[in-house]
């Protein structure tokens, strides 16, 4: 397994990955709705990675995105922050340390890019395994820092 930076020719394969992966956790891939930014990753993300198996198939994804400071959340939001996005791994590859490898890689990259804080939002019910992973990495629950209607847990970690 290896982590590689996203390149535009992987777009179709990426969408096929999400069509397979998201239903495994009770979600559906909505390319014309809430997942629209994933239909053109090259334009919407500077830092997006895929984990590929030996057959060059995508088995996981993770991204980080700059998180603009919003004074409305000044009590618990920091400047110079990024947001962890789209940590997904096919069920058959879970429990093998690959999620840890992807998260560790993304956080290391975030530090190299100069970020000092990482934030994320998620859904407790659909992402219980991921939330356990975030907690292992030192993420702590905080009040909401955005208005994501699909999230019910918000977390941050000092890098």
Q: What structural class do the secondary elements suggest? A: alpha+beta
Q: Termini separation (Å)? A: 25 Å
Parts with pLDDT < 50 across at least 5 consecutive residues = none
Radius of gyration: 15 Å
SSE series: EHHEEEHEHEE
Helix content: 10-25%
Number of beta strands: 7
Task: Give structural notes.
This protein is an alpha+beta fold and 159 residues long. It contains four helices and seven strands. The chain has helices at residues 11-21, 41-44, 98-112, 128-136, and strands at residues 2-5, 47-52, 58-67, 81-89, 117-122, 140-142, 153-158. Strands 1-2-3-4-5-7-6 form a seven-stranded mixed beta sheet, with helices on both faces. The longest helix is centred in the middle third of the chain and has 15 residues, at 98-112. The radius of gyration is 15 Å and the shape is globular. The mean pLDDT is 92.
Topology:
Layout (H helix, E strand, L loop, with lengths): L1 E4 L5 H11 L19 H4 L2 E6 L5 E10 L13 E9 L8 H15 L4 E6 L5 H9 L3 E3 L10 E6 L1
Parallel strand pairs: 4-5
Antiparallel strand pairs: 1-2, 2-3, 3-4, 5-7, 6-7
At a glance:
The chain has 159 residues and is an alpha+beta fold. It has helices spanning 11-21, 41-44, 98-112, 128-136; strands spanning 2-5, 47-52, 58-67, 81-89, 117-122, 140-142, 153-158.
Q: Keyphrases for this structure?
A:
alpha+beta, 25% helix, seven-stranded mixed sheet, globular, 4 helices, 159 residues
């Amino acid at each position: 397994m290896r982590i590689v930076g996203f390149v535009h020719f992987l777009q179709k394969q990426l969408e096929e990955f999400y069509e397979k992966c998201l239903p495994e956790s009770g979600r559906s891939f909505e390319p014309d709705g809430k997942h629209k930014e994933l239909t053109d990753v090259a334009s919407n993300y500077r830092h997006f990675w895929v984990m590929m198996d030996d057959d060059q198939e995508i088995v996981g994804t993770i991204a980080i995105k700059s998180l603009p400071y919003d004074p409305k959340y000044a009590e618990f939001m920091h400047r110079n922050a990024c947001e962890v996005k789209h940590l997904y791994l096919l069920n058959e590859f879970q429990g093998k340390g690959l999620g840890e490898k992807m998260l560790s890689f993304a956080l290391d990259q975030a530090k190299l890019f100069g970020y000092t804080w990482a934030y994320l939002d998620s859904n407790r019910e659909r992402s219980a395994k991921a939330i356990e992973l975030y907690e292992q990495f030192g993420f702590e629950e905080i009040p909401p820092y955005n208005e994501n209607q699909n999230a019910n847990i918000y977390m941050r970690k000092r890098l």
